[in-house]
Amino acid sequence: MSLDVSPALLDKAERGEVDEKEFVDCVRISLPYAWEMISSLVAQLKVDGGSFADNQVPPPDEQARGQLLRALASDAIRGALQRHFGVRLAFQNCHRVAVFPLDPAVDGSFTKFTSVRSQLLNQSPEFRDC
């Protein structure tokens, strides 16, 4: 299961649309490792500036790795996180997460990070089974 959905939130979803703030809160509670990583990268980007901030440290365990995969593989979760934090997210090798500002001036950096070449250059034997 990707998210720990409360009975009240599930009931709202069954009756109709759910407020995105409630969904984002559900993500925050359900995927704390992913939430903390993305939050800290957003804070780093705001402090340091630049075209992006990224994480290159593998998750401490499979549970944390699973949270990242669930957060970034789901279009709904990923989209809600991008809207909530006001960034674009990029993802490589089951742990390398990057946040990019919503600024056309950094489109080149985003394109480079998400390119086939960058994906190939970011490979390493220790990440083979991640």
Write the layout of secondary structure elements.
Blueprint: H1 7-15, H2 20-30, H3 32-48, E1 53-54, H4 62-73, H5 75-85, E2 87-92, E3 96-101, H6 107-113, H7 116-121
Antiparallel strand pairs: 1-3, 2-3
Helix pairs in contact: 2-3, 2-5, 3-4, 4-5
Structure keywords:
three-stranded antiparallel β-sheet; 7 helices; mainly alpha; globular; 130 residues; 3 strands
Structural write-up:
The chain is mainly alpha-helical. It has one domain (7-127). The chain has seven helices and three strands, in the order H-H-H-E-H-H-E-E-H-H. A three-stranded antiparallel β-sheet has the order 1-3-2, with helices on both faces. The longest helix is centred in the N-terminal third of the chain and has 17 residues, at 32-48. The model has no long low-confidence stretch (mean pLDDT 88).
Strand content: 5-15%
Shape by Cα distribution: globular
Which regions contain 5 or more consecutive residues with pLDDT less than 50? none
**Assembly form of the protein:** single chain
Number of helices: 7
Largest sheet: 3 strands, antiparallel
Give the end-to-end Cα distance, rounded to a whole number of Å: 19 Å
Total domains = 1
What is the gyration radius calculated from CA atoms? 16 Å
Question: Which class of secondary structure composition applies to the elements?
Answer: mainly alpha
Output mean pLDDT: 88
* Strand elements, count: 3
What percent of residues adopt helix (DSSP H or I)?
A: 55-70%
